[in-house]
Amino acid sequence: MKRRVGIVGFRGYSGAELVRLLDRHAQVKVILLDHREDSDISQIPAPGKQRQRAAATPETVTAQGLDLVFLATPAEVSMDLAPAMLRAGARVVDLSGAFRLREAPSYSRWYKEPHSAPELPGEAVYGLPEFCRSRIAGARLIANPGCYPTAANLALQPLVASGVIDRSAGIVCDAKSGVSGAGRKPSLKTSFCEVAENFSAYSVLDHRHVPEILMVSGLEEAELSFTAQLLPIHRGILETIYFRARNVTNSSDLLGIYSQKYKDEPFVRVFENRLPDIRGAEQTNFCDIGVRLDAATGRAVVVSVIDNLVKGAAGQAIQNMNLALGFPETEGLL
Amino acid sequence: MKRRVGIVGFRGYSGAELVRLLDRHAQVKVILLDHREDSDISQIPAPGKQRQRAAATPETVTAQGLDLVFLATPAEVSMDLAPAMLRAGARVVDLSGAFRLREAPSYSRWYKEPHSAPELPGEAVYGLPEFCRSRIAGARLIANPGCYPTAANLALQPLVASGVIDRSAGIVCDAKSGVSGAGRKPSLKTSFCEVAENFSAYSVLDHRHVPEILMVSGLEEAELSFTAQLLPIHRGILETIYFRARNVTNSSDLLGIYSQKYKDEPFVRVFENRLPDIRGAEQTNFCDIGVRLDAATGRAVVVSVIDNLVKGAAGQAIQNMNLALGFPETEGLL
Amino acid sequence: MKRRVGIVGFRGYSGAELVRLLDRHAQVKVILLDHREDSDISQIPAPGKQRQRAAATPETVTAQGLDLVFLATPAEVSMDLAPAMLRAGARVVDLSGAFRLREAPSYSRWYKEPHSAPELPGEAVYGLPEFCRSRIAGARLIANPGCYPTAANLALQPLVASGVIDRSAGIVCDAKSGVSGAGRKPSLKTSFCEVAENFSAYSVLDHRHVPEILMVSGLEEAELSFTAQLLPIHRGILETIYFRARNVTNSSDLLGIYSQKYKDEPFVRVFENRLPDIRGAEQTNFCDIGVRLDAATGRAVVVSVIDNLVKGAAGQAIQNMNLALGFPETEGLL
Amino acid sequence: MKRRVGIVGFRGYSGAELVRLLDRHAQVKVILLDHREDSDISQIPAPGKQRQRAAATPETVTAQGLDLVFLATPAEVSMDLAPAMLRAGARVVDLSGAFRLREAPSYSRWYKEPHSAPELPGEAVYGLPEFCRSRIAGARLIANPGCYPTAANLALQPLVASGVIDRSAGIVCDAKSGVSGAGRKPSLKTSFCEVAENFSAYSVLDHRHVPEILMVSGLEEAELSFTAQLLPIHRGILETIYFRARNVTNSSDLLGIYSQKYKDEPFVRVFENRLPDIRGAEQTNFCDIGVRLDAATGRAVVVSVIDNLVKGAAGQAIQNMNLALGFPETEGLL
Predict the structure, then answer these.
(1) Nearest to residue C322, comparing CAs of C75, C89, C5?
(2) Between chains, do C197 and B233 touch, taking CB under 8 Å as contact?
(3) Which residue of D has its CA nearest to B276?
(4) Which residues from A are below 8 Å from B13, CB to CB?
(5) Which of A159-163, A278-282, D48-52 has the lowest mean pLDDT?
(6) Residue B145 in contact with residue B215, Cβ under 8 Å?
(7) A191 and B184 in contact (C-beta within 8 Å)?
(8) N or C end: fewer C-beta atoms under 10 angstroms in chain A?
(9) Would you call A193 a catalytic residue per the annotation?
(10) What is the DSSP annotation of D205-269?
(11) ipTM score assigned to the predicted complex
(12) Are strands B125-126 and C68-71 parallel, antiparallel or unpaired?
């Protein structure tokens, strides 16, 4: 019998992607959970078929027998809903930044608002399966990683851990994202006429995703220069990472570190002969990684690619659900 | 000495285009007129240089000695501001739909709201220079045409007047516009992720620009099927017009009608050998027209192209200003 | 045990889409058939996994036990390969225009070259399942429909058959297609810088897909005005169809005709309350149809949408294969 | 009386931009010089008006009295044509990479072919006016800079010269360019369907523009990591430059260096309060530069933007022509 899961925020891009992907999942039935009255009903993405709806309340969790609830909501909504959903007995996979940082003060610094559920970050498990798989399985509250940190950490952590980065020279992560990463709420910044035929940087040296990268990769804040930039495309992230390599003699050495680390991972692909592009990972849950090294000087470039709505949001959330509910990790994702 | 003109609505796409184009105009100095406090100052398009600003009031007209005011504002704002500006002694070129239809009840029908300055539509002159040039010169209030009607009427009127359209079979105008035609105000409909890699029809058989097309072309409502559609591009309109031809034997006959009508017009280009595309008219004040006729069956196709922000808005508004203030008609537009 | 099928032309957009879609098909195993040495091996789309390859020869059909071969090739290649593949015992689904028209002279007129396998068009079955399902099941050679005709015929045929179109007034089909419809071979016409921020008409009143529309819809050449236009998007077709309705009193009458005709069809969706857009059918095998009627005047607009690479090419080809090999018609397509 | 100048390669994107920009130049008359018979005459961009044409030969230089010839041609064509044009008495502004590097062996290394006019690189003057203005005025042969190096050098040189970059930590230049930078010749890499909704890196650590950056900026090859990447837009370059700053205490110190260096430059704009984006420099000859510095750690980010077809090609070529022929430097460019 199928397990029942709820989705709050199904009107947004990440939430709608969750609905779309879970339609292919053999073991769960989705209940759409209405959080707010939306005055303009026409803005609800056509679900394409009849779907079960209910209010996003603890009572629904009980009445519907929900095993797990996805919160595809802004951080302030997640801080409000997560405690109630947990108390009602559901596991929670939260796609916002509310519970990713281990300590509430760190949240306050980067998100520039106080944390309204400060008891929870300490309990939450960071949902990057490639590094936290065992803890995810038993977690009540899973903090689904940010899109930029997912691509960055999968590329950086193995190299940092292997000691092949000369950290004294600093590391650069030049990140580019499609517009869906900014969410579905209309704004001038994401209007077609402002984005098309344009490209721009934002939150330079001050992006709220930076502490997640530091937390997982093991780098220090002073070592990492991170820039987010807006690509005139719908979906996809490509990060170009620069560092000075040491203790390696050629590209194969770097590729070997990745291959060793990810040889049993279903959702990381190491590119041997060329660099990945955004198209190749589109609508997949893969993180694609490639490397260039100039052996003589140690200059190294890593390119890491994901689909921000899949491995960077809804796909990884389902991967986490699969781990938490005991399904095969790849169910619904290949 | 330069004449002084004001622009209300300079933050919008048409208003910003007016500012940009008037920078090249040798005979006017522009004053930006603030109509509303904009809470988010960052949303003002970078003017690129120091510009004179003043309040959008009748007092400013007097104090600054404004000869003419452009209203690049929504219809309800134009209905509010135009009477006051006129009383203060300025000519007005209004880019909204407020004064295009000759009678206030017609406005109410198509714009679905009462007209709040019902004495003015009767006085206003419709600002399509190719058909109303002499009246524009002496006008106090010029109603700048809609973007779709400009492309449609320049293509249709000469054919209707020449009697080469079999009106009993009906005329189709299938129109496609870039996103800037929907204005700068953020909305889901004009968000990048909704528009990119998409194409859709809207206001089918019920677009408020229809009465303008009927008014100028001479067609009856029952004869014309007009559809507006949203192209995933920034700017440009292409209309594909279909009709059954009569009294002509080949494409040259139709081209001849256009050439005769427009031989002295600076802003209409008749394409002899190929059909125009949107790129060719981009950032110009031209309307490009081409024709295909199947002589055996009388099936005829006309393609009419403009840049919706230039000939469809700001460029034509300047052309009207040039006529109204006695400048060379092409000043600042070639 | 899985049946074995071959694909010639798997480097092209339609062929690559066949490979991608058949990866989800439970009952066939794909063999990629090399027709020409491609000098630039880098241009082969990354298949993402190891795939079986063989030469596109009759010997391969026998040696590999191929039940069916897809020809995703230009018409001249299909005319060359189809006879040999048929003789070797494989069924053939041809995605080109080589065998769609019933008579070789008609091919010569519209494709402007002689037919090099003139004995085959008479045998070929036109692969539009909604109208030719029973004949497809037994066919040796299936001519997969063109992309434009698929969207046009599914919209037009039921209306023509029902007698609700006033054919004396003519029918307009204004069609817009994404760039992948032009194929993968590089050309200036499909270069990014020529297509982006542009829109243009081509083959006006002279498109080779016209005879397919006439053949299935039952219209006469003199009655139909068809224009193809290039949208700056990757994939998708939207056709806006105009006609004068008779014998109907409101939109529901037209919708009723479609609902009656397509009530058991898995791949046609009739839109009751709004018009379809390109996004909604993207990467699906659906044809989405919506209607607007002005009852007072009889002016009617139908919007028909498909993904040109799926229902307009590879998806429909698989639907035909499913019928020909006795699989469930929707296998691999939902 | 107007001076006469010729353009070879006017069909390409840079050449067509030269034609377009020179239409606004008050002091020159353009002669289009045909270098190769183009079999497909339809591919010539519509010049929009009657233009004078002649063969691209030394005889034309003499017969037409050409003062200067622009070579908007591939390097191998420029190496062939430049000597002959110079001997015929014309000055030459070459837009290819043929004469940018001072020594022919360096050309051979980076362009991977021998130099066929090895006597010329030593004579050529590098046409970056902000750094080589005085020598450009008297030059016979001007090597117009590459697009990427123009944005990079205007941003890097003042900082390197001021000693505020900790060069031991390395410098990263992450560059993104619109598709027109790849030229007008059709190729799969620049096809709409390959570029749209995609983003990719190329020539990583091995781009032929690197030596130009080293030559002007004063950096060593081992110090600079340069990556070129393809943006799904028509035109524009944005480079994000990372380094470790020293001897400065805040962003103003870096801005001050730029302001001091460029205070009299007509085509460099220093952004005080925000970072530039690609749109802001579109269709202008400006290079826009902005800065972010984290004072505590010295991490610095510079964003440098140009339009690759204007300041990165045709506009800068005209700026060089203005210097060489004694016109005001900004003529035709503001």
Answers:
(1) C5
(2) yes
(3) D46
(4) 193
(5) D48-52
(6) no
(7) yes
(8) N
(9) no
(10) T--TTHHHHHHHH---GGGEEEEEEE-SSSS-EEEEEEEEB-S--SHHHHHHHHHHHHTT-TTEE
(11) 0.95
(12) unpaired
Optimal mutation site among C174, C210, C227, C288, interface B, most CBs of chain B within 10 A: C174
Q: Mean pLDDT for chain C? A: 94
Q: How many other C-beta atoms are found inside a 10 Å radius of the C-beta of residue A7?
A: 29
C88 touches chain B (CB under 8 A): no
Q: Say which of B170, B172, B277 has its CB closest to residue C199.
A: B277
Q: Please enumerate, as own/partner, the contacts of C270-276 that have beta carbons within 8 Å and a separation of 24 or more.
A: C275/B200, C275/B201, C275/B204, C275/C303, C276/C238, C276/C303, C276/C304, C276/C305
Residue D147, classed as helix, strand or coil, is: helix
Q: What is the pLDDT of residues B40-85, one digit of tens each?
A: 444 455 445 678 999 999 999 999 999 999 999 999 999 999 999 9
- Residue where the block lists tokens 């030596």: D211
Domains, chain D, ranges and CATH?
Answer: 3-145+312-325 (3.40.50.720), 147-308 (3.30.360.10)
The label of the residue with tokens 């760190």 reads A106
Structure token pair of residue C40: 């630039």
* Angle CA C146–C8–C184, to nearest 5: 60
Q: Give the other-Cβ count within 10 Å of C150's Cβ.
A: 29
| B197–D46 C-beta distance less than 8 A | no
Residue C77 and residue C54: Cα distance in Å, rounded?
17
**pLDDT at position B166 over 70:** yes
End-to-end CA distance of chain A: 22
Confidence of residue D41 (pLDDT cuts 50, 70, 90): very low
Q: What is d(CA A175, CA A308) in angstroms, rounded to the nearest whole number?
A: 12
Pairing of strands D237-244, D299-306: antiparallel
Residue of B171, B132, B128 whose CA lies nearest to B153: B128
| SS3 call for C318 | helix
Please write the tens of the pLDDT for every residue from B127-146: 999 999 999 999 999 999 99
Q: What share of chain C is helix, strand, coil (3-state, %, to 5)?
A: 35, 25, 40
Residue C79's contacts (CB-CB under 8 Å, 6 or more residues apart) are C98, C115, C116, C117, C120
Q: Is A115 exposed, middle or buried (0-12, 13-18, 19+ CB in 10 A)?
A: buried
Shortest alpha-carbon distance between residue D24 and chain B (Å): 10
> Residue B310 is which amino acid?
V
Chains in contact with D via at least 3 Cβ–Cβ pairs below 8 Å: A, B, C
Tokens of C174: 């204004």
Whole-Å CA distances, D164 to A56, A117, D226: 55, 45, 20
For helices D315-325 and D13-22, give the axis angle rounded to 10 degrees: 50
Facing C294 at nearest CB: one of B199, B205, B279: B205
Which residue has 């997969």 as its token pair? C144
Structure tokens at D169: 């930590």
- Report yes or no: D45 and D11 within 8 Å, Cβ to Cβ: yes
Q: Does D292 touch chain A (CB under 8 A)?
A: yes
CA-based torsion, D38, D44, D47, D50: positive or negative? positive
Q: Work out whether strand C299-306 and strand C287-294 pair parallel, antiparallel, or are unpaired.
A: antiparallel
Phi/psi of residue D49, nearest 5 degrees:
-160, 170
Q: State how far the Cα of C77 lies from the Cα of C96, in Å rounded to an integer.
A: 9
Residue B226 burial (C-beta neighbours within 10 Å; 0-12, 13-18, 19+): buried
Chain C CA closest to residue A277? C46
**Radius of gyration, alpha carbons of chain B:** 20
Identify any residues that bridge with B224 across adjacent strands, giving them in sequence order: B171
Please say whether the beta carbons of B269 and B232 come within 8 A.
Answer: no
Phi/psi at D327 (5° precision) = -85, 165
- The answer to whether residue A22 scores a pLDDT higher than 50 is yes
